[in-house]
User: Fold these one by one.
Assistant:
Number 1:
Amino acid sequence: MAGKLIALEGIDGSGKSTQARLLAESIGADLTFEPGATGLGRVIRQSLLHSSSKEISISIEAEALLMIADRAQDIAENIAPAIYAGKNIVTDRFSGSTIAYQGYGRGIDIDTLQDAIRLATGSIEPALNVLLDIPVDQAMRRIAGTGNQTDRMERLGIDFLDRVRQGYLSMASADPDNWYVLDCDRPIEEIAEMILSRVRDLL
């Protein structure tokens, strides 16, 4: 029996990385993330998120294709082997992020993006997308409070991130059976319990 893929989605500052880790621990699943979970992915992550514009120039089309390439490698090395071995796997970001950030956020044609995503993912899709929703201004305050350096996506500003957030909400509204939306303005433990309850029903 094949395992299932659960994707945690949301803008930075939503707490999705924490919740992805807690969920994987709770259900005994493998954990992966995008971008950067493979050797190739680490090179892509550094180029996309942590290089300044003075070091490297990346067009929005190249950005999208690099994100999708990272996913293809993650599937080959981590996701597909786990699923076909009957293990469940949790990912911190998946295809929803590409549609939200590069489609709704950057303005790339969504149908074109979906064609490229299908090339990378084949038949592998999340059994459930968990969207941790948070207003952009609240997310930015959370990020600022961590003291961490902002990455290339976060530096695109509030209007960009608001388009991304609205893109996520549009996807979830259009496909409610495959998306579970949570308002993340509540304690971490409470969010984790709500996600775990929903995932246990699925499994």
Note: The radius of gyration is 16 Å.
Number 2:
Amino acid sequence: MIDFGKLALLASPTPQAEEAAVELRKAYDWVDLADASAVVALGGDGFMLQVLHDMLDSGHILPVFGMNLGTFGFLMNDWRESDLTTRLRAAKAITVSPLCMKVVTIGGQCFTSPAINEVSLLRETRQTAKLEITVGTRVVIPELVCDGVLVATPAGSTAYNFSAQGPILPLDSGMLALTPISPFRPRRWRGAILPERTPVRIRVLDAAKRPVSAVADQREYRDVETVEVNIDRSQALTLLFDPEHALDDRIAMEQFAIG
């Protein structure tokens, strides 16, 4: 249960967001993040992802109501100073489970990072990447020659995944999109839709000659050899939306966007 008397305010370091934060601090009472039961975030989608990643890193996960003072604001609500408490009480809660990316580099270093939108592998040089893709326990593509490949959540399916010709996934679909980026061989493979509990393992073939980086949302690891991607149900995130502008409906309607 959210205690609306214990809200923390976070703002992107942009003039628009900082000016809006000044107005909100005058109009409402706020507490420190450590004492809060929910967060109001001012900025764009990039700032929202930063806030969510900071929560995942700290383990202090709170519901977040974002207001758009950035460019696109797909993960945000409209900016309004008035009626904030009323909007929060009426907000629709959307639960999003991140991906967990486990990376092993050519040098043997191991890293783990969450991804809310997608995990993407990208070639680092002019050389095309050569990737072996395993789904579950089966090698489904022995050699994918491409610029890269990505695994996207439903929340991220309208972002990089969609621009790479991947499918839009309904938020409650329980699926992940596995989408190639500029595939050369096999020529006819355009990706797959997988149950979200299916692990995906990607091995870079000839990794020294054809180096590949792995990116979990905005965090990049270079010269990778293997990448494993799994859904992480243990760190579910909660986003709050105005009922008429909720994320699940936005994702569904993106299938009909022609502008």
Note: The chain has two domains: 7-97+236-256, 99-234.
Number 3:
Amino acid sequence: MTIDIYAADEQHARPVDLERWVALARATLAEEGVRAPAEVSLIFTDEATIADLNQRFLGRAGPTDVLSFPIDTEPEPGGRSPDGGTTGPGDEPTEEIPTLVGDVVICPAVAARNAPEHGLSVEDETALLVVHGVLHLLGWDHELDEEAEKMEARERELLARHHRSSEP
């Protein structure tokens, strides 16, 4: 069993190396203690789509670089109840139900625009957004200064271990 990352590139503004970002997302999940079976969606989208999501779900106008949509509910047990996932008396339990962690949506065009402001290459900015988005799925936040400092430190640790940095 693995941690499955379902990735899609639904934009045309910038090329996206899906395999690279899937590997980084999977490494981040594993480092944070997520165990298989688990599923995450990693979607790269255009500015209009992310602006719509930003407005609908956060009430904020305009495009943003990354949005995370954690799935807060536990999966329902499979099989018959109350026998804990078996199909009948004496049967072996059914296959484990994957934990649906959530969706991370990234806009490469916004990432490319923000990268120089952050002193990063587009690749490094994208790596940061992947890690940042996955950490949000797992409950990390940055609303308070103390939370932001902890999250930024964790992002730096994960990027140092799992991302080959490039120059701006």
Note: The beta strands are 3-9, 38-44, 66-70, 99-106.
